[in-house]
Amino acid sequence: DSNHTYGTMFVLLGLTNIPYLQALSIFTLLIIYVITLSGNMILLIVVRINKQLQTPMYFFLRNLSVIDVCFSSTIIPKLLITTLSTDRSVSEVECALQMYFHLALGGTESVLLTIMSYDRFTAICKPLYYSSIMNRRYCISLAVVCWTGGFLNSIVHVVLTFQLPFCRSHQLDHFFCEEPPLLKLSCQDTWPNVVAVYVSAFVIGICTFSLTLFSYLHIILTILKIRSTHRRKVFSTCASHLTAVFLFYGTIFSIYLQPSFTSSIETNKSVSLIYTTLIPMLNPIIYSIRNKDITNTIKRILK
Asked: Is 205 a domain residue?
């Protein structure tokens, strides 16, 4: 594009300019990052060493932990550096890479959550066929599709965004390179980008969320037919996954399904902060706290 100037430097305005709030945010983010890394690494180790956890459900849970570690590492370290430093500039290449991995990992997680709900649907609604359907080869194929889809989708958005001329301003009023605030810096018509966002939101967001709800509708109907002694254990596993699903999709939809990205900057920052920092930290806690297999393994390791 002849109108595009390569080598653009963006300035991330961050979360706040108030000194004491900056200090508080650095301290909080550091704690969140440490908990995220340690929580997900513990989950990965526990699933690895416990032979009883070598099942499709835990295979996908391991994938989720990898996504959470990578997702958090894409955002928090750079956020800490820019908050601590007086120089908040970020190169166009750095910005594009951060946006690429953020969108790729977010898309991958969206598809993975649907696959995890399908796994629970098969286990609960079709128990006699579960082992034959969810065999190792099929699980690996689903994981490959999940990761490939997320990373290919992200390429489209990065290419469309970084061919735009950013002539309104180079000050990005956000704490990382996210697509909606970047589009606001362009003085060119961004309708192809907006269309791409809505198409992705429909396919990777609404469609996957609908399939998840469809799976859980069947699961709930099946659970109601189960004897009360087994019902609680089955529901406990599903409740953990549903909590993660609603946390993830609720925050994503509130940003990417806003008409023409009209929500306030501060609202976008707050919601982005939840899904980029808090959800990766909460996921291992949500999946472990009511899971006796995981908690018992952790107790055995600590003894």
From this structure: yes
Domain annotation covers residue 4: no
Mean pLDDT score, 81-109: 94
CA max distance for the chain: 68
CA 241 to chain centre: 14
Domain CATH for 297: 1.20.1070.10
Q: Tokens 């932990």 belong to which residue?
A: 65
Nearest by Cα to 37 from 68, 75, 61: 68
Contact 251, 280 (CB under 8 A): no
Query: What are 129-175's pLDDT values in tens digits?
Result: 999 999 999 999 999 999 999 999 999 999 999 999 998 888 999 99
Q: What is the CA radius of gyration of the chain?
A: 21
Checking if the pLDDT of 2 tops 80, the result is no
Q: Is the pLDDT of residue 36 over 70?
A: yes
pLDDT at 4: 53
pTM for this predicted structure: 0.91
Residue 279 domain-assigned? yes
Residues in the chain: 303
Could you give the number of structural domains in the chain?
Answer: 1
Whole-angstrom distance, CA of residue 54 vs CA of residue 233:
19
Structure tokens at 61: 């849970």
CB-CB contact of 50 with 297 (8 Å): yes
- 273 CA to centre of own chain: 12
Domain of residue 130 covers: 18-302
Distances in Å between the alpha carbon of 168 and those of 10, 159, 163?
12, 19, 15
Nearest to 249 by CA among 297, 210, 191: 210
